[in-house]
Amino acid sequence: MSSQRPALIVLSARDQDRLAEQARQLREALVSRGYGDERLSDIAYTLQVGREEMDHRLALLATSVDDLKDKLAALDLDGEPPAGVFRGEGEGVDAGEREEPVEGLVRAGEFGRLAELWTRGLRVDWAALHADADRRPRTVSLPTYPFAGERYWVPSAQRPKEPEVLVESAESGELVMSAGSGLMLFEEVWEEVAVSGSGVGVGVSVVVFVPVGLAGVDGVVGGFVGVEGWRVSVVEVGSGVGVERLGGGRFRVGVGDVGGLV
Q1: With helix as H, strand as E and coil as C, how does 93-140 read?
Q2: Average pLDDT value for residue range 85-97
């Protein structure tokens, strides 16, 4: 962008209030971040290519950052826009105007015409606007869209129909369905049940491993055998391979190769 060419600053929003808030935030950012005139084309380029184009539109022609800040400070969206400020609602461009090339308007210096057409809905090739710039513009940090801080409350749900519950009839003593209060209560009830033996359970299989030649093995095993419902097997473990069935639920493991005893 040459030094004589004004910067085309574009803002758009979903409604006029958001548009005014966007203009206010932009001015605050220009003041707080201290951008100089050398960044004016970058500011314009960022707003042109880095923001969604919405219906309520505002375009400003600025020759310097101070000029832009002054226009934003004096902005009155309800009044008549001053020179260099254009407003529109993204509609009203006829077929002939849509054919006007950006390059032709730029060469003719008709930046006001370009700004006015954009506010009325013209789609602008922003790259063509900067094609003959002294340097390629870059994006800079600027405020994003100022969404409205609105709250939405979920409507209260209708009270559901009270469920029917099974109750005992006071007259007949039979269980009948009746409309409940919506609150269902349950009572935890424990019933005592007798358990045979030591209480571990019925039908338990127990395998007892003892060393080969253990003295008093019968006394050790006898404590298990006496429990009702238990099936007890005793395995004597020693060195070697193989298994020897001793009878009476007893086995001996590791006594040498005993040829298939299991």
Answers
A1: CCHHHHCCCHHHHHHCCCHHHHHHHHHCCCCCCHHHHCCCCCCCCCCC
A2: 82
